[in-house]
Write a sequence for this structure.
């Protein structure tokens, strides 16, 4: 996994701040592969208590994360029951790395 301890800690802290203590965050995409270089930070965020996550929270989370770790390309996908049967969703859960 190509994230620093500081980046992981920042993601966890800010995710809990914006989405609550029941938040789950998965890293997926190229940053999960130690052999690759570069790439954006791809995060999938869900909530164990079933609360629907809001786009405004996502925007605030990304903004605060950039302010904390520095400007980087960060993509955040929020859990959505409508896409749980999709190949994309299944791939994230199969290959993603859970951060919290």
């Amino acid at each position: 996994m190509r994230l620093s301890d500081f980046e992981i800690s920042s993601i966890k802290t800010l995710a809990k701040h914006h989405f609550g203590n029941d938040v789950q965050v998965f890293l997926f995409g190229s940053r999960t592969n130690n052999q690759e270089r570069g790439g954006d930070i791809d995060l999938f965020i869900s909530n164990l208590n079933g609360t629907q996550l809001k786009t405004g929270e996502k925007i605030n989370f990304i903004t605060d994360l950039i302010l904390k770790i520095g400007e980087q390309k960060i993509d955040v996908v929020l859990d959505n029951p409508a896409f749980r049967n999709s190949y994309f969703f299944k791939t994230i859960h199969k290959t993603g790395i859970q951060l919290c």
Notes: The mean pLDDT is 92. The chain has one domain: 5-98.
